[in-house]
C-alpha cells in the first residue's frame, strides 16, 4: 500500500519568504551574541592579569596566556572602548549562503601577540642613560652591559600567544548551537502562525 501526498508548494514557499525577511535581523542578533561569547572566552581563558609586583621583569614572564597590564587589548577583545575610542571594528556581511563576521583590532601589538614576531628596537642615547641609571640604582651587571653594548639595535623575538583564533575556536560550538536555536525558533514561529 502506498500513500501519495502533494505538499502545498505555495504555502511552503510563502512560509520560507517570511523567514527570509527575518533572517538578516536574526543574523545581526547572532553577531552580537557571538561577539559577547568570543570576548568572554578570549579574555577569560587566553589572558590573565600580570603579577603586580614591579620588581618582576616582564621579559622573564613564563610562557602561557597573555599577561594583562594596561587592559587595552583585553578591552578591545571584549568590545569595550579605550579612552573613549573604539579600538576594534566589526564587519558583518550577510548573503543567502553565509554570514561573515570579521573583528579587526586597532591595538598596535595585537597581531604581535596573536602570531608572534621579531621587534627591532633602535638603541638611543636616552636608552643608554637609562641603562646607566638602572645600573647605579641596582648594581645589576646586566644594566651595565646593556649601557656598554655596541649594538645599534636590540632584536627581540616575541613568541606567539594567540588569543583571538583560539577564542573563536572555543566559542564556535556554542555559537553554532545558538544559531540553530534561533533558526528553528524562527521556523517554528512561522509554522505556528500558519497552523493557527
List the defining traits of the structure above.
single chain, 196 residues, alpha+beta, 2 domains, two-stranded parallel ribbon, two-stranded antiparallel ribbon, 6 helices, 6 strands, 16% strand, rod-shaped
Structure description:
The protein has a two-stranded parallel ribbon with strand order 1-2. Strands 3-4 form a two-stranded antiparallel sheet. Strands 5-6 form a two-stranded antiparallel sheet. The protein folds into 2 domains: 119 residues, no CATH class; 42 residues, no CATH class. Helices cover 53% and strands 16% of the residues. The N terminus is likely disordered. It contains 6 helices and 6 strands; from the N terminus they run αββαββαβααβα. It is α+β, with helices and mostly antiparallel strands and 196 residues long.
Q: What's the SSE pattern?
A: HEEHEEHEHHEH
Shape: rod-shaped
Write down the overall mean pLDDT. Answer: 79
Model regions low in confidence, pLDDT < 50 over at least 5 residues: 1-5
The structural domain count equals 2
Radius of gyration from the alpha-carbon trace, in angstroms: 27 Å
The total of beta strands comes to 6
- The number of helices is 6
Strand numbers in spatial order across the main sheet: 1-2
User: Termini separation (Å)?
Assistant: 32 Å
How much of the sequence lies in strands comes to 15-25%
**Main β-sheet: number of strands, strand sense, barrel status?**
2 strands, parallel
| Fraction of residues in helix | 40-55%
Q: Decide which structural class fits the backbone.
A: alpha+beta
Amino acid at each position: 500500500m502506498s500513500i501519495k501526498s502533494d505538499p502545498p508548494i505555495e504555502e511552503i514557499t510563502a512560509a520560507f519568504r517570511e523567514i527570509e525577511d527575518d533572517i538578516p535581523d536574526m543574523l545581526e542578533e547572532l553577531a552580537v551574541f557571538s561577539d559577547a561569547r568570543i570576548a568572554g572566552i578570549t579574555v577569560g581563558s587566553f589572558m590573565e592579569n600580570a603579577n603586580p609586583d614591579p620588581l618582576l621583569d616582564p621579559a622573564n614572564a613564563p610562557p602561557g596566556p597573555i599577561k594583562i597590564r594596561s587592559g587595552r587589548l583585553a578591552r578591545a577583545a571584549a568590545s569595550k572602548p579605550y579612552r573613549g575610542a573604539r579600538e576594534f571594528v566589526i564587519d558583518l556581511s550577510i548573503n543567502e549562503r553565509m554570514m561573515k563576521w570579521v573583528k579587526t583590532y586597532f591595538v598596535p601589538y595585537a597581531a604581535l601577540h596573536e602570531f608572534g614576531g621579531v621587534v627591532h628596537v633602535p638603541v638611543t642615547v636616552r636608552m643608554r642613560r637609562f641603562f646607566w641609571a638602572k645600573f647605579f640604582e641596582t648594581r645589576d651587571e646586566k644594566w651595565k652591559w646593556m649601557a656598554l653594548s655596541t649594538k645599534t639595535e636590540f632584536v627581540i623575538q616575541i613568541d606567539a600567544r594567540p588569543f583571538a583564533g583560539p577564542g573563536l575556536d572555543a566559542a564556535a560550538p556554542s555559537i553554532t548551537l545558538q544559531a540553530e536555536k534561533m533558526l528553528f525558533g524562527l521556523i517554528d514561529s512561522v509554522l505556528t502562525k500558519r497552523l493557527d
